[in-house]
Amino acid sequence: MRKITLFKTMLFTIALFAGSASAWAQCDKADDFATLTATYQYGTRTTTNGWVGANAAVLVGGATEASPVFPFIGSSDATKSMTINGKTTTIGTITSPTLSNGCASLSFSYGNAFSETNGVSVKIEIKQGGTVVWSDNLINTSVTGKTPYTYSKTGITVSGDYTLVITNNCPSASTSNKDRVSIWGICMTNYSSSTPTVAIPVITPTPGNYIAAQSVSMTCGTAGASIYYTTDGSEPTEASTKYTVPFSVSSTTTVKAKAFLTGYDPSVTATATYTFPTEVANIAALRAGTTPGYYKLTGEAVLTLKSATRNSKYIQDATGAVLIDDASGVITTAYNLGDGITGIIGTVAIYNGMLQLTPVADPGAATSTGKTITPLALALSDLASHQAELVKVSGVTISDITSGTGVFVVSTNYNLNAGADPILRTQYDDMDYIGQTIPTTPQDIVGVVLMYKTTAQLVPRSFADMVTTGVKDVKVNLNVFVSGGKLNLEAANGETIEVYNAVGQKVLSTAAISGNNSLAVNAKGVVFVKVGNRTGKVIL
Fold it and tell me: What is the sign, positive or negative, of the torsion defined by CA atoms of 106, 110, 116, 117?
């Protein structure tokens, strides 16, 4: 009787193991998302072991839903997910630390915690030495919100050290928080082969964007191995070109290299893409190009606004305009407004709805000086169609509804004609109107157009760009200075001298005498002086 009982117990145990295969599945390497702090905010998240989430939130399991707690992730907050954003301006990714002993299989759980309409689309890559050696696309267009799903892949044959990268494919192509995917429970098994594998070739220089031709060389850590390579993006074989000496690349080229040795498995393919700028003749062609992209503007463009804030520069030619965002200070040449700049090279991308060029090199000395760009007269409703261009709007009122101080404050929006789109934006802290009194009468305003998402923002270059409506056909070429608390200027006998305060009120009107006129004016701060068709500004 005891033997029968023992036999039944053994059968029960075997059945238990067989029926619970998933619970006992091997997991040689796993994420440690449990070390993260729960948050619904998006940012960079790094675990104790070095897993990194970019533009990621940390959503967790629990009994009751209250963000960042979502029960579909797990029954307790011990289960944590990296939730990667699908925002195209900052694409969400999960990157593992360097993992050892190869990869034979990969699995994880995933789902949508928020209301999404495009399902799940992520790219899964295994990299060695920065080169993708295995990849797969997870696409599920039938995802039900707040429901867990499982991704599982076997038959992977990556040996040695590697890094796992999971990237949100951003199917909505939105600059807002969209296509957010929660991923948790990453599990990998080791892979080993009885045949040794040739070390992956090392290609130098590092792939990236270049201006000048590059000499490409290759090495392999396995003694006696031969390297074969291609420059057309195809997979190398032993029938490809054998590497013997460095070679030059001067146009955009993808180099792939693979090493072979008798008695060894071939190496993983190493890939290096060297990107050279696409040449465009004018800004219209630059704006029409692919974004993100890498370009050289061969034609000349004129500087219309500059600021020390992020070393911003607005440039314009006869076909369009673009904002140069140079936060790293790559451009070291000092330019003046009206200078012509030729040969600008940089990457182009859209940030919050605004096309921006990030320079990679200093263009050098101005190729011309004293150029004039005539502002394009527009209605307020047309500003959004003229990004970065120098424009003029007439007869508009500026509402001080944001700060309420009566003076211009930096980084502040001011409604125009009582509307919130477009607005006047004090984007840069080194403009001379910061701290000056906001005009209360209708103004003719010149400025460049900055976009923030879908809102057009008019950014004046100086206080002189704001002129009281009705003061027409004037030239800002009157030399006015202050001495002894009085205005001083040159005028002809009998000319009319008019002085306006910062809000557009006339505070003085008098006939000039021939030569220097020294005038006491009952006003403080910035005043606007008009003599005939000449104008000037000065601070009293």
Answer: positive
Q: Which fold has domain 376-468?
A: OB fold (Dihydrolipoamide Acetyltransferase, E2P) (2.40.50)
Residues 6+ apart with CB under 8 A from 8: none
Looking at domain 202-275, its CATH class is mainly beta
Question: In a 3-state reduction of DSSP, which class is residue 95?
Answer: strand
Q: Which amino acid is at 244?
A: T
Q: Which residues touch 406 (CB under 8 Å, ≥6 apart)? A: 400, 437, 438
Q: What is the pLDDT of residues 235-276, one digit of tens each?
A: 999 999 999 999 999 999 999 999 999 999 899 899 999 999
Buried b (16+ CB within 10 A) or exposed e, 294-316: bbbbebbbbbbbbbeebbbbbbb
* CA 163 to centroid of chain Cα atoms: 25
What is the CATH code for 29-189? 2.60.120.260
Lookup result for tokens 């030495």: 129
Say what the pTM is. 0.61
Is the per-residue pLDDT at 3 higher than 50? no
Task: Quickly name the fold that domain 285-359 has.
Answer: OB fold (Dihydrolipoamide Acetyltransferase, E2P) (2.40.50)
In the chain, the N- to C-terminal Cα span, in Å, equals 112
**What residue type is 288 in one-letter code?**
A
Query: Under CATH, what is the fold of the domain 475-539?
Result: Immunoglobulin-like (2.60.40)
Nearest to 512 by CA among 499, 525, 524: 499
Alpha-carbon span 495 to 486, nearest angstrom: 19
